Hints:
It is a single chain. By secondary structure, the protein is α+β, with helices and mostly antiparallel strands. It folds into 3 domains: about 10-50, no CATH class; about 60-305, P-loop containing nucleotide triphosphate hydrolases (Rossmann fold); about 305-400, ACT domain (Alpha-Beta Plaits, 2-Layer Sandwich), CATH 3.30.70.260. The chain contains 13 helices and 17 strands. The strands form 3 sheets. Strands 1, 2, 3, 4, 5, 7 and 8 form a 7-stranded antiparallel beta sheet that branches. A 6-stranded mixed beta sheet has the order 9-10-11-6-12-13, sandwiched between helices. Strands 15-16-14-17 form a 4-stranded antiparallel beta sheet. A hairpin with a 5-residue loop joins strand 3 and strand 4 (about 60-70). Helix 10 (about 295-305) crosses helix 11. It starts with 7 loop residues before the first strand and ends with a strand. Mean pLDDT is about 80; it is low at about 1-30, about 40-55 and about 305-310. Pfam families: ABC_tran, NIL. It comes from Paenibacillus polysaccharolyticus. This is D-methionine transport system ATP-binding protein. GO terms for molecular function: ATP binding; ATP hydrolysis activity. Keywords: Amino-acid transport, ATP-binding, Cell membrane, Membrane, Nucleotide-binding, Translocase, Transport.
Amino acid sequence: MLGANSYRIMLHMILADEKVISREEPSLYLQRALFLRRTGSFPFLRVKIYVGDGEGAVLVIELVGLTKTYGRRAKTTTALSHLDLKIQKGEIFGVIGHSGAGKSTLIRCINLLERPTEGEVWVDGINLTELSKSELQQQRRKIGMIFQHFNLLSSATVYDNVAFPLKLVNTPKDAIDRKVKEMLALVGLEQHSSKYPAQLSGGQKQRVGIARALASDPNVLLCDEATSALDPQTTNSILKLLLDINEKYNLTIVLITHEMHVIQNICDRVAVIHQGGIVEQGPVTEVFLKPQHAITRDFVSRDSEGGLALEEAVMANAGTELPAGVSSKLVKVSFLGDKTYEAILSRTVRKTGVDFAILQGTISTIKQVPYGQLTVRFEGDSAAIEQTLSELTAEGLDVEVLR
């Protein structure tokens, strides 16, 4: 349970007579309200808890002590181990990890396609692990999901695939028609409504999957390796579509992937999962430019131009014979935003009188924000080199001495 001292808890109780009560109270009040709801002692239609940090951000998903094991007794495999995670409303949150790290299990625990062995799964303020089967089905309607291999009905048209979740809950026919047409227009497939999945490309199939997932107006969209089966160009178009949907509907998106460029292109924050636990998480710019864990550094290096082999070659061949009294340092310099295009490095070395050689360089974007990284060898007086590094840091650049 969330502590009242750590979070602001807003409890909205909608009563049977549609009277709305809103109040801010400690967690004791919250526990009392949930008890009344569970026991049926008070005619709540629903209870939602909106939990924000000090700046007003709202938590939509919280995983508490999540553990998932398979097998029995001595022959058990642990997929997730005591994992905690918080995801805010309206953000695109990425989970990256190698095969077998537990990322698919993690995302399937969010809507309880996989029921955790231990722990709690809170979505929109409801602990899904405490719900009955019928209550869980109702809550799942607010959690859309798309899959790596699309999971479309092969014998149904594009129109009927998108309409399928609406028909399951007996939505009126005219409402289904309006929603299906709206969703197909959103994903750019309004001209393909009468086609069957076999007549579509991979990218078009995934667009149908997205339209179907959004047809029920979910608050959360889960993406299980949604671009892994697509070519690079189609991947980029699907990522652009997800970004547009997030911005248009303020939809919370959780995606898992083993591809760092997917995280880099659209995610706000990222968690790195390894052997069933989260080893690093934070804003994408911070994790990408300043990776702390070896697994994260491996992902970043392999995704950069030239890959890990080039970085290792640079490190192996960076040393040169220097005259007596001349020092050198191998440094990684990172730029972000408008500073990427400024002549900060050349301006600084002219001032300090230090020579330099650029051994490796990259310029790219993180969610449309430009960034650059240079591996540079500085040569000269040791004091002048230290001054150079200090001035680069003062200019707002990130400086990491490699050796």
